[in-house]
Amino acid sequence: MDFRLAPLALATWLSAALTIGIYSLGNPVWFWVTAAVAVLLIQLIPRRLSNTEIDLTTLVVMLALGALLGITISLLRIYPLTYGPVAQASASNVVIKGAAVVTSDPIISNRKGQLDWANQEVLRITLRLESATIHSQTFDLHSPVLVFASEPEIVSALKTYIPGQKISVTGKLSTAPLGKPYAAYLKLLAVPEDIESPPRYQWLAADLRSGLHESLRGRSAAAKGLVPGLALGDSSALTNDLASNMKSAGLTHLISVSGTNVTLLIVLVLAVMRRFRANINLQYFIIVVALVGFVILVRPQPSVLRATVMGLVALVATFTSSNKSSVPALAVAVIGLVALDPWLAMSYGFALSVAATTGLVLFAPRIMNFLEVKTSKQIPFWVIQTLAVTVAAQFAVFPILVGLGSPLSLVTIPANMLAVPLAGPTMILGLLAALVNPISSHIGELIAWSAGLFAQMIAGIAHLSAGIDWLTIPWPSGKLGVVLSITMVSVGVHAAIQWRRLALESKSIFVSVLTAAVFLLWQPPTLSLKPWPPAGWVMVSCDVGQGDATVIRVGPNEAVLVDVGGDPDAIDRCLTELHIKKIPVLLLTHFHADHVGGLDGVFKSRTVSQIRVSPLGDPPLTTEYVSQVLRDRNQSASVMTYPEQFEINGIKFTCLWPSQLILGQGSDANNASVVIAVKVAGIDILLTGDIEPPVQEEIVRTIRPINFEVIKVAHHGSKYQSSDFAAWANAEIALVSVGKNNGYGHPAPETISLYELTGSQVFRTDRNGDIAIVVRDSKIRVATHR
């Protein structure tokens, strides 16, 4: 294999990722993903240098050139976004008028506006500002902006727009976070007007995409979600349950178009061309046209662009009788794509795609040869081939998946072996349905129905695989997990290369160490202080089982209580041990039973002065329970919303959410949780209730970063988290209030990994018991108590 371009590609990719990451001080998760890719690939290069014409001097020069290229293209793209007229104007929330080109499909969500319970659709779409009048001065621009619109007339107009369409816009700018591929956010204030129609090819692509959805009308939820996902990379109709099952089974890569789809398309086109005995030049031309059309149809996702560029490079190499190795093709694809769009270097999907392809190129042939020798001749070759491809890809992406917090499960191997062969027919039939529907809707529906049958089988495999827990291998999360996974892959690669040369004793040691590493569990160190409560405590996260209860000390025997858990005895025990007699404010973030069910226990031998609640009385049963408990004690509650503040004995409480109600995007009650920032003893604490990604992202967009010392992780550490929110909070300590063996999968490994990789030390009530934040001599400590 020819590895001469690999150092250049690797240096370009990693330098672009680090430049954008360091510049924006954005999500630190990416630095660990970058490290995983770097170590995995760098340790392969020296092994192969002896088989190439590259020497050490050339290697250093190529690494330097790649780093220079990555840094240069990143800064050239970042600078105009940060210092251009649009970015500068966004700091003062200027209203602008201008002309823009639509660059994405609209994304629509349903909300309730400003707590008034009025139904409201919110739409976001990306535009490229071509010109704008700012402060009475007109600028010629090329500035991408992310647009938000909520007025019904504006939303209705934007729904009809197609990428490539030119429109006039009037809106208010606001600052976008550093490191994002936007110059600013833009909230439209008026209905846009058409300037130019979209190109004909974009209009045709949009018609074909909508036609596929029409063909699937009345089909199963699996068909509606998976067929567009496999054929077009459109996962908008995928249900949360199916998406969760696909992720647990390791089948998420099927939902978005990948290199497999491109390969199938090339094979199909070649088969048709050779059937008509087309000459070789015509075959290549038709393949290029088909690939370009496919990218336009499915939209230029990172995996599609990577696979398409690699396919084109391979075609050129074949056509010019050059080296036909896939490694140079992949290297050229990485360099070209990162140069075209440096933000691809920060894309997890792009990293997984390149790593998986690298695994297929380097490992799959070796695994296949091993299986052919060691297995029975009665096993069909396609089974061996599928197993080799699956194992090679999973092995290569393993460190990255650990960095992203995905659990390590052996079920992904049989799940992929069963599902991947079904993905081909689903994709081909889905594309055919989209192409045929404009000609004959009846035939299109028949083809879509056939695609739905294969999609239903994939959904069944995902559902069955997601329920198999015993194949999940315990693996450390966070930094330790990444380091161990990189070590395992590196040692595995070198052992495979040197296996025949190793003595039996060395082989035995390798297998023993590998087995021990697989079953190693990681527990973060804790500090246990006695007696309880520890001197200088300012906050305690109570161990109330599967639920939330947080105590903020505001004076001797006095505390503000945020949520009460689901067990009256558990919250009473925690408050009693903390010697709490007075509660000036009791805040119930929302009305789920695991946050309000212990309310009776709060009133045992204690006085409660004021009760504050979420503005959304949902679910009705637990809301009525709270109302009845308060009526029995002649108490009343009032709603708390943004931006209300109160202060007790110099301790400041600020409500960050809700400023509006977001409905239809997960759990309505969770997303109506009251989010509180607490300033106590010189530290900042964030209590998040059970908010889910839509609210987390809205907070990131609208509230300036505070850099909290402590965060109570939302929703007991469920997998529904925003990485941007974790980076925005930037907490030193993350607390997870969760019960043992809760049946919900809380906390999710990926959530623990997310917060550990953002620099937080994670503590959990299921393992640590009551968790106290102690401030003494301006230093923060953590104390635990069981």
UniProtKB/TrEMBL annotation:
Stored Pfam families: Competence (PF03772), Lactamase_B (PF00753)
Keywords: Cell membrane, Membrane, Transmembrane, Transmembrane helix
Keyword Cytoplasm tagged: no
GO biological process, any: establishment of competence for transformation
GO cellular component: plasma membrane
Localization (cell): Cell membrane
Main localisation: membrane
Membrane topology: Multi-pass membrane protein
Listed transmembrane segments: 29-46, 58-79, 251-273, 280-298, 350-367, 379-401, 413-434, 446-468, 480-497, 509-525
Domain Metallo-beta-lactamase: 546-740
Gene3D superfamilies: Ribonuclease Z/Hydroxyacylglutathione hydrolase-like
Record protein name field: Unannotated protein
